[in-house]
């Protein structure tokens, strides 16, 4: 298995990036919070998890090992595949997921697109004894500059399946939250945008 990759960032897309390793470009599928911390041309170390299917080998990338471990653990729950596990980490931090499972907070889990009440109940039932308690030492997510958070949040929403129009409306709705921030947090704004869309 490939535990992590290190190398210059060759490209950043809507839901993935390309890291050059030994002259080979590896595509890593990442949620917007991870992509927000990458810059084209700069070297990066990205924790990875490989998902093997009969017809494909797919690498998913994460900002740190904690996110990677939660990604892999979430998939042990019935009905949770890699895309849904990644969507969960796009909306909730690892500690928020642990807290939600420990407290059986279904309302928190259903904020994730694709997780309904029954799915949240399954996650709590199957992971409560495995997921552990929130850690106080989990580092914050990377911040994005004030000028490009809108594009990152919109791209993230589209990558999670929302239409371009819905994504644009959600970005407009959460814009007031970023007004007083010198460096708006893309993951926090993405979560706020998703909450806005879930109420629509």
TrEMBL record:
Annotated stretches, region: Domain III: 145-200
Pfam family, any one: HHH_5
Helix-hairpin-helix DNA-binding motif class domain span: 72-91, 107-126
Subcellular locations according to the entry: Cytoplasm
Lineage top rank: taxon: Bacteria
Keyword DNA-binding found: yes
UniProt keyword annotations, A-Z: Cytoplasm, DNA damage, DNA recombination, DNA repair, DNA-binding, Hydrolase
SMART domains registered for this protein in UniProt: HhH1
Hydrolase among keywords: yes
Molecular function in Gene Ontology: DNA helicase activity; hydrolase activity
Domain notes: Has three domains with a flexible linker between the domains II and III and assumes an 'L' shape. Domain III is highly mobile and contacts RuvB.
Family from the record: Belongs to the RuvA family.
Subunit organization: Homotetramer. Forms an RuvA(8)-RuvB(12)-Holliday junction (HJ) complex. HJ DNA is sandwiched between 2 RuvA tetramers; dsDNA enters through RuvA and exits via RuvB. An RuvB hexamer assembles on each DNA strand where it exits the tetramer. Each RuvB hexamer is contacted by two RuvA subunits (via domain III) on 2 adjacent RuvB subunits; this complex drives branch migration. In the full resolvosome a probable DNA-RuvA(4)-RuvB(12)-RuvC(2) complex forms which resolves the HJ.
NCBIfam families, A to Z: ruvA
Function: The RuvA-RuvB-RuvC complex processes Holliday junction (HJ) DNA during genetic recombination and DNA repair, while the RuvA-RuvB complex plays an important role in the rescue of blocked DNA replication forks via replication fork reversal (RFR). RuvA specifically binds to HJ cruciform DNA, conferring on it an open structure. The RuvB hexamer acts as an ATP-dependent pump, pulling dsDNA into and through the RuvAB complex. HJ branch migration allows RuvC to scan DNA until it finds its consensus sequence, where it cleaves and resolves the cruciform DNA.
Protein name: Holliday junction branch migration complex subunit RuvA
